[in-house]
Structures are given as C-alpha cells and as structure tokens.
C-alpha cells in the first residue's frame, strides 16, 4: 500500500467517533453494533472499550475476524482484520475519556473493563466529495445525459 492510500484512509477516519463493529457469533452468523472509536490518529489499529463477558468480547475471543464500518456525509470506510481483547491498564488510562466514563463510572481500573484492539489488514473506502448533495446532483446529471454516475472515489487498500 502506498503512503498516499494510508493517508487517505486516515483522513477519512479522522474526526469519526463511531463505527459498526461486526463480529462472528458462535453459530457463524454475523452481528454488528455501534461502538465508539477511541483513537483519533489511525495507524492501522482501532481501539474500543468493552465490558468483560459482553457479546463483542465473547465473539472476538471465539473468532477474531472482524469488520469495522465507519461513515458519514459522503465518505465511508470498511476495515477488515483481526481483533483481540486487551487488558492493558496503561492503555486503558491513556484512552480513557468522559464518554467512556458514562458507560463505566468506576473508572479505567474497573476490572470489568477491557479493550478490543482491531488490527486492520485491509480497507475499502468510498469518498464522494461534496456529500449527499453532490451525489444527488451527479445522479440527476447521469440520468439526464445517459452517462454513468460519478459517485466519487472507491479504492481497496492493503494495510501494513
């Protein structure tokens, strides 16, 4: 992957607060839930707080393959990789913030709090500059001219 592609994925993730973490249930079916992203600088890893024994934690322990979907406005990113449950007290304190405290009022040293670390090995992104309005305009233009819609940039990226 080029540095430009890494930067593009990081740029699209910057400022995003929520992602849909998709895990594999024990019966092999997929399930997704919204989770709060904990680091603002994407380096190939995504971090989430979770409760020990919760479904996301159980699913990751049983099958580490996950997907995280993030999107807003005119940009969407789908990241695929492996997840692990991390019990690093220093990392929990580093990532701790007021939003997490609303879910876990006992603080970062609460033994029921763990981290889920997702190491993304690939990403696919769609970037439609101008957001929904621009996409709607491109759709109408395509219908009128008979040309294919220009829905923005779509790339598949292998991450280090």
From TrEMBL:
SUPFAM superfamilies: FMN-binding split barrel. Residues 4-150 form the General stress protein FMN-binding split barrel domain. It comes from the Bacteria. This is General stress protein 26. InterPro entries: Split_barrel_FMN-bd, Stress-Dev_Protein, YdaG_split_barrel_FMN-bd.
């Amino acid at each position: 992957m080029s540095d430009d592609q890494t930067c593009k994925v990081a740029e699209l993730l910057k400022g995003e607060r929520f992602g849909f973490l998709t895990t594999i249930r024990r019966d092999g079916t997929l399930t997704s839930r919204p989770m709060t992203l904990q680091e603002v600088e994407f380096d190939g890893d995504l971090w989430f707080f979770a409760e020990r024994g919760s479904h996301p934690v159980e699913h990751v322990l049983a099958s580490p393959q996950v997907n995280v979907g993030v999107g807003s406005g005119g940009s969407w990113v789908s990241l695929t990789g492996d997840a692990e449950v991390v019990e690093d007290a220093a990392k929990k304190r580093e990532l701790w913030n007021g939003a997490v405290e609303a879910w876990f009022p006992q603080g970062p040293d609460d033994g029921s709090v763990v981290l889920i670390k997702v190491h993304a090995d690939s990403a696919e992104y769609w970037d439609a500059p101008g957001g929904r309005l621009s996409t709607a305009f491109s759709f109408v233009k395509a219908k009128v001219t008979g040309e294919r819609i220009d829905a923005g940039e779509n790339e598949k990226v292998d991450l280090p």
